[in-house]
Design goal:
The protein is 35% helix and 20% strand. The chain contains 17 helices and 17 strands. The two termini are 34 Å apart. The structure holds adenosine-5'-triphosphate (ATP). Residues 28, 31, 35, 53, 55-61 line the site of adenosine-5'-triphosphate (ATP).
């Protein structure tokens, strides 16, 4: 790939680019063993791939070789079919978003200047940069008027992290690399940021490679999870469902830890299951009219929505019958979940509120319906059954070149035989 080349976006809806690590090795000077040893790995366009594994196993080194912040000692990085190993590193990095813990923002630059950094380097004019900054602030759920002129120290940890994501997305790169992006925030903010990332991804379909220490985070965010052992040896590279249902080795079993059954709950998100419609009303509506509507619909409870369609109260017929007027006060204890929340989060919300259902909010927190305990239980059983099937995981191995793809789209027999032989010899092998 020449220095003037740019990464081409994939065809169709996916704006992400495919990445292939082709027999990549990193040997740091003075180290006995390579930090990354002969790693071959497909990262499909438009998917989220999570890197997990014990400390020092080579996750960050592998990530940083993709944008060549670390130069591989051997092997190549191929993006959308183009070998980028010889490309100018700075130019490559302007086309790959990079997010690190706590956002990695420049403290002396305003939010707008931080976000506009790469567009400015790319020579965009001022108006275009300003419009892009505002658009990205909206995307990460921060009001542009309030935040564009602030400095990083005037932001919470979660807000800094959002700006970090906005900055990485500024020039609309096809690839986003994230190194422990949510490591420095509290668990609730972390959950919210994870949900936001999933919302953004649903819209943008980037290729996201993310290093995390948190296996639950990997399960929640990943389309695919790569579990590495020392030297970036792949122990298993597969869907979260299948890793949980069929760990490839004792190492993976230990890594998942106890409670694999419960982790299944984090596999499904609220938007993937059916929601029940609810009777809704607005503040000021006469309670007796609402009761009449509930009776007609054969329902017990009504959801009160504010002027922006957000749920603020959830009242039973009995509560309604005692009220003169429906106020516009928001009940702080509502069992509220987001469409991107996991079923685990939804069950939690129901348990905390001692209710058999939770209220679901979609984009901009608009109420979309109810999720019930029964729906959650059914989804868990269905998920467990589905995880038993064989699927088409991307290739990940440390045993040589990527197997050739035959005309019918399968990896050919010779390569498959090679993989099997390697696996029998006890070499790390990503496909079960
Ligand atoms: N600049 C360097 N020089 C020499 N050795 C290094 C260098 N950077 C990393 N290493 C070594 O390479 C190995 C892999 O490090 P890397 O940071 O990629 O691991 P990691 O899996 O990301 O770890 P962690 O989860 O602790 O962040 C480690 O043994 C580390 O000590």
């Amino acid at each position: 790939m020449s220095e003037t080349q740019t990464i081409q976006n994939s065809a169709e809806k996916v704006s992400g680019a495919s990445i292939l690590l082709d027999q990549v090795t990193k040997q740091y000077p003075g180290q006995a063993k390579p930090a990354v040893g002969g790693l071959t790995m497909e990262i499909p366009a438009g998917s989220i791939v999570m890197f997990v594994g014990p400390s020092g196993c080579g996750k960050t080194t592998t990530l940083k070789m993709i944008n060549r912040l670390i130069e591989p000692s051997d092997g190549s990085i191929v993006i959308n079919g183009d070998n980028v190993t010889g490309m100018n590193g700075d130019k490559l990095r302007r086309q790959i978003g990079y997010v690190i813990q706590a956002g990695g923002l420049f403290p002396h630059m305003s939010v707008a200047a931080n976000i506009g950094l790469v567009p400015k380097m790319l020579g965009w004019d001022k108006d275009r940069i300003a419009a892009r900054v505002d658009e990205l602030l909206e995307l990460v759920s921060l009001d542009p008027k309030t935040y564009r002129n602030r400095y990083p120290k005037e932001l919470s940890g979660g807000q800094q992290q959002r700006i970090g994501v906005a900055r990485a997305l500024a020039a609309d790169p096809p690839i986003l690399l994230m190194d422990e992006p949510f490591g420095a925030v509290d668990p609730i903010t972390r959950q919210r940021l994870q949900n936001e990332l999933l919302n953004i991804q649903a819209e943008l379909q980037k290729t996201i490679v993310c290093v995390t220490h948190d296996f639950d985070e990997a399960v929640k965010l990943g389309d695919w999870i790569a579990i590495f052992n020392e030297g970036a040896q792949i122990e298993q590279y597969d869907s979260p469902e299948r890793i949980l249902a069929n760990p490839a080795s004792e190492f993976v079993e230990n890594f998942i830890g106890s409670g694999a059954g419960l982790k299944q709950l984090t596999l499904n998100r609220v938007h993937e299951v059916e929601q029940q419609q609810a009777v809704t009303a607005t503040p000021g509506e006469p309670p007796e009219e609402i009761i009449a509507r509930l009776e007609e619909a054969g329902q017990q409870n009504v959801v009160i929505l504010d002027s922006r369609g957000r749920a603020i109260q959830w009242l039973s017929q009995r509560q309604l019958s005692r009220l003169q007027v429906i106020s516009d006060a928001a009940d702080p204890d509502l069992p509220l979940v987001n469409e991107q929340s996991t079923l685990n989060d939804a069950l939690d919300a129901m348990l905390v509120a001692s209710t058999g259902a939770a209220l679901v909010a979609g984009r901009r927190d608009v109420f979309t319906g109810l999720i019930t305990v029964n729906t959650v239980m059914d989804a868990i059983s269905a998920g467990q059954a589905a995880a038993q099937g064989d699927g088409d995981a991307p290739v990940g191995l440390n045993t040589g070149a990527i197997p050739q793809i035959s005309d019918n789209g399968n990896h050919n027999d010779a390569a498959a035989a090679g993989s099997t032989a390697a696996a029998t010899e006890g070499t790390a092998e990503g496909r079960p």
